[in-house]
Amino acid sequence: MEPPTRSPRLPYRRVSRSRARPAACWSSTTTPSCTTRVYRATQRRKLYNATDAPVTRYLIRISVDRYPGNPERSNRLYREHPLTWEEINLQARCGNDPMRWKVQHDRDAFKEVWLLFENEYGRFPLYPGESTWIEYSYTVGDDKWGNWFQRAVRLPTKRLSVRLDFPAELDPVVWGMETTMTAEAFPFRTAISQDERDGRRVFSWSTENPPLHARYRLEWKFRARSEEKDAGPVTTTASETMRSLGVVQEGDPILRQVARPFDLPVEAEDARRVVAELHSAMERVANAHVFVKGMGIAAPQIGIDRAAAIVRFPTGEIITLLNPRVIEESDETDEKYEGCLSFFDVRGMVPRPLAIQVEHQDIDGQRRITIFERGDARLVAHEIDHLEGKLYTDRMRPGVKPIPVSEYRGTGQTWQY
After folding, report:
1. Annotated binding residue at 386?
2. Domains of the chain with CATH codes
3. pLDDT tens digits for 229-263?
4. Which residues are catalytic?
5. Which of 47, 61, 297, 408 lies deepest, with the highest CB count within 10 Å?
6. Sign (positive/negative) of CA torsion 223, 229, 234, 237?
7. pLDDT per residue over 93-109, tens digit each?
8. How many Cα atoms are found within 13 Å in the side-chain-facing hemisphere of 381?
9. Any known ligand binding at 34?
10. Is 382 annotated among the ligand-binding residues?
């Protein structure tokens, strides 16, 4: 979900605080059963009027995206089940004064609203040089929200803080990623704190003077709900683990499709969102398995039909590949075992060139050519194959078959050359 954002026309300075509080609503039967699960999001912002005219309204957006990076699936969901004003139940205040509001846009997946500095008792504009706190809240069901919250810094901000308040019985865990204007992503620079009391588990995080165009994304998982949903035999195979972490598995048609390229820089915003999804997936996977040789993940592997991939080299360096293609290969090759997150129960011996030249694009559309060698070349070539609808098994020599991971002896060892 992209939380409400301010109108870019007014040169405010702000301190912003956000809270998302999921609530489990139970029926009155003897054995509780959940009938409705909702999020109640509260945004608090301190606004300062740096203009020479009074401010009489403030634009916010309530926007949801259940399947980020997969607009077709999200659009289908909201066409069938659009957001309604009744379920949103928008409420807004300026200090202690309720605020009226006026609809600007009403769409299936987002609403734009002018919060008015007025109510039934009169008007209270924000005059030049004055500052005030405003607060607004709304509700969205978890079938339309999704387990993530994102804030983009679009105007100068002194402090940004987020508080996530969950029922402790759901056993929630939270992690966060920061994405820069160049689409590079990395974990939060400061830790997310955790406190548990009165049956709630509260996660808090803040940052001072965040840079313009930075994007902060928090994701969460309810471990208790996953156990309830997956009741039955315990999953033990590597592939089942990857499936549980959101990695598309072999047999899904998207792995055999050529991924759609980005039109950059026109689709820069879409590219950033896909890259953020890839980084989140990589973190989940890296927490479940050690990748001494490095690792990568391509957008089709998380169900997104776009030409983007990220690769983490053994050194820890991460590279983002947008619209990549191999333009030259070395004549010299070697053959080594590879694994794939989309069928992680086996390893296959794959011949590849020892060096490749790759043309790819920056988020602003600038084209680059990068040379990769040896193990790095193998990692990059593997991910580019995914974007071209190929799997490493397509490159194995005739008659050679993958071996079970239990027979593979290279786990925990670096590439040898």
Report:
1. yes
2. 13-229 (2.60.40), 238-407 (3.90.45.10)
3. 444 444 468 888 888 788 999 999 999 999 999 99
4. 383
5. 297
6. negative
7. 999 999 999 999 999 99
8. 26
9. no
10. yes
